[in-house]
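pls design
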């Protein structure tokens, strides 16, 4: 589910920039590279496929 949200937000961000026609091609390439680096960082550090495991705090004695 995390991947779907990530890809949807990436496509939405890039689509907005592309269809606004206010960015040059070079700016779009830089933005695409930044979005792909962000996705790579999410995949590397975010562990999107790992199940959540909430841990409650130990009560002090």
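designed seq:
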């Amino acid at each position: 589910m995390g991947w779907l949200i990530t890809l949807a937000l990436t496509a939405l961000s890039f689509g907005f920039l592309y269809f606004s026609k206010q960015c040059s091609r070079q700016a779009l390439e830089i933005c695409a590279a930044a979005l792909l680096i962000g996705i790579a960082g999410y995949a590397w550090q975010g562990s999107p496929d790992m199940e959540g495991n909430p841990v409650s705090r130990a009560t002090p004695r």
